[in-house]
Design a protein that fits this description.
The protein is mostly helical and 152 residues long. It has helices at 7-10, 15-35, 41-52, 59-66, 73-86, 102-123, 128-144; strands at residues 90-92, 98-100. The protein is 64% helix and 4% strand. Helix 4 (59-66) crosses helix 5 (73-86). The longest helix is centred in the last third of the chain and has 22 residues, at 102-123. It is elongated. InterPro entries: WH-like_DNA-bd_sf (IPR036388), WH_DNA-bd_sf (IPR036390).
Length: 152
């Protein structure tokens, strides 16, 4: 791969710009690929939380966990849960417990396979050691600037 600058020049490049550019590239690719199978990224988050749960999760648990993803917020996540129910991908009982439908499970399987392909695409030519270093450096930047980040 050809880099944008020499190593000495890269050391002077702004992390804010490059982390933003990486974010935009990765998220745009994921969203476009998911749109190709008829699901939004927040809908994927919802069906994945329901499908992968070891124990049944409530609407409040799923919404609470996901509302900080990409600054979606509680209103967006509540609307996406409603939409997933309306589309027949998940169900909700009287106590707010969410479950997968047959259609939702099939969509989850399809989207999960797509996510695996996207993961491999993003990680091409990047060792586990490089990835781990990148994650630690990014988290250190967040810590050093007084920010916070968390992902399950």
């Amino acid at each position: 791969m050809e880099y944008s600058h020499s190593d000495p020049e890269l050391l002077k490049q702004p992390i804010g710009y490059w982390s933003w550019a990486a974010y935009k590239a990765v998220v745009s690719r994921i969203q476009a690929a998911l749109a190709g199978i008829g699901v939004t990224q927040p809908q994927w988050w919802v069906i994945a939380q329901v499908a992968r749960a070891d124990t049944v999760k409530t609407r409040a648990e799923v919404s609470g966990l996901l509302r900080n993803y990409l600054d979606a917020g509680p209103e967006v996540m509540e609307a996406e849960i409603d939409r997933a129910i309306a589309l027949g991908w998940i169900t909700e009982d009287a106590e707010g417990r969410l479950g997968s439908t047959e259609e939702g499970r099939a969509l989850y399987d399809k989207a999960a396979a797509l996510q695996d392909e996207l993961w491999a695409e993003r990680h091409a030519g990047i060792s586990d050691e490089e990835y781990l270093t990148t994650m630690k450096v990014l988290q250190r930047f967040i810590h050093n600037t007084g920010g916070h980040g968390w992902h399950h």
